[in-house]
Amino acid sequence: MTQEKNPAFVRFQGIEKRYGKVVAVKKMDLEIPEGALVTLLGPSGCGKTTLLRMLAGLETPTGGDIFIKGKRINDTPIHKRNLGMIFQNYALFPHKSIFDNVAFGLKYRAVPKSEIKDKVEKALETVRLPGVGNRNPSQLSGGQQQRIALARAIVIEPDVLLMDEPLSALDENLREDMRREIDNLQAELGVTTIFVTHDQREALSMSDKVVVMKDGLVQQEGTPEEVYNNSANHFVADFLGHSNFLSAVVEEKHNDVLKVRLDDKSSCLVSPVGNFEKGDKAEIVIRAQKMKLGYQDEHSPEEDMNFFHGTIVDRSYMGGEVSYFVELPGKQVLHVINFVKRSPYRRGDDVYVKVDPFHCRLLQS
Ligand SMILES: Nc1ncnc2c1ncn2[C@@H]1O[C@H](COP(=O)(O)OP(=O)(O)OP(=O)(O)O)[C@@H](O)[C@H]1O
Fold first, then answer.
1. Which pTM does this prediction carry?
2. Could you give the 3-state DSSP secondary structure of residue 108?
């Protein structure tokens, strides 16, 4: 019989952290499922690190409770929480050998010497650096040092692996490789992992679940697809990717779609997120990648809804895609990203921008 995974392997209940007048984390409730890779994503200062440090035992909550496997751990000392931690600056001991660095947590736990050797070797193999035990950290590259930090964290077989911006010191290519490696390793080991980042691409590419935070509160949690495609509010839609926002007033309800009036008096069919009534003021969010461009003289006037006319005021080539800024008559500028194949347009061209109602998501403003 396969055992059910615990959906609340780690649980924060009404957790709060105040530093004097600053409330870094505000009575937050959050559950981390067993075996999942969950990222805490948000701008600088939103409380991600503080939340992680409270779980690690490096900060004391000023309110609320933390549970691991159903056991309240508020008063459990750091070394008894059985957590593996990796931080931005690796924090390897520079004068100890790689072997001793990786063995550190095991020695601390008084694991017998013969077992330590096996476990360290296995951990180094897992991070694909077998045989480097005798070297010092300075003899390894940044990416390799980060893998050693990973080996040191997993060798103790932690209940939860905590990673605070572990890739931010690496250059972009190496980051990409390490991202994939961490993702694969986490899936292979099945260890519950909490990963802190302010990089939305990082969060979307590797997580089972993304927790978007702002000002010490959770704004939305869900799979990468859910938070990206069904962003719950302006902040989440804006933080994840390139979004356009247009203010609108609800005109008519048509089953699943609504007809709204825009500031320039044109109409648009949209997909509502939540309940709206006629006359409600709201905001449409449209992803830059979900809009299509065409030349204005190719647009028949019968198809008027969900078309915007404007002029390209900026264009930048980005490799596989082209990014355009299109100024509408009311001076609002739309950001449109199209594949290169469909992008013959130049600065100064008069174009239309077309968007499917399904991709016009109406949010409460
Ligand atoms: N020791 C401290 N004393 C006072 N204020 C603090 C302390 N640690 C954090 N804060 C404040 O708490 C808030 C949350 O900080 P935290 O480091 O958790 O944010 P973060 O989302 O991890 O940001 P970053 O991505 O920049 O690390 C910030 O306003 C920060 O200034």
1. 0.90
2. helix
